[in-house]
Amino acid sequence: MKATSPKNLEWLGKTAILTAFLTALLYASGWSYGVHHFNLYDVGLLGLKLPKEVFFLYGFMAWKSHWLFALLLFFAAIGVSSLPQRWPHMAYLPTLLHVLAILTIPIMIIIGIQLGGMRAKELYDSQKEAGFPRFPTVKVWLKEKSAIPEESGIKQELAAGCYRLLLNNDKFLYLFKVTPEEGHKRHPTVAIPTSETAGWQRHSANGCQT
Fold this sequence. Notes:
Oligomer: single chain
Distance between the termini: 76 Å
Number of strands: 6
Mean pLDDT: 80
Radius of gyration: 25 Å
């Protein structure tokens, strides 16, 4: 078996470090996006127990809107890494580059976290201005012996399609109501246990049908 050359080992090491860094950056950005996104809808992220893959998708969404900034950083990193080859006589360059690399990692993570929060707020504001069209209206029918009290009036509103679906999992339906007459005012999100529902479906009409 042919031995791997030191140059190839160095290249593999750099590739592994870059891959690990990009993975951490995407995950941190996506985690920040998720925290801010669901906080804006009055829902805690940890209780949702979302799959880890979702945070990478959120991270991509955060950086997608700032692709030019990401591209500039990428080319800047390439330029910095080529400095020792361009100026080999500068003996302090390797040490300086190591220091810059160590500082760059936390700085980029912090930037990614900030971008995630900013992107979540941007999308929320655009949805609010348009009346939250991204979230479908749903009709939910509760069981006859549901623990949700009749006097709350929520049973009738759920069956009439007054709520929008934020998220659903095997335990809860996360729903919120929008009042167009009050400038698309969003009411607090409610979590309806799926064990209390007899069924639910997406509703094409926009608004209550009482």
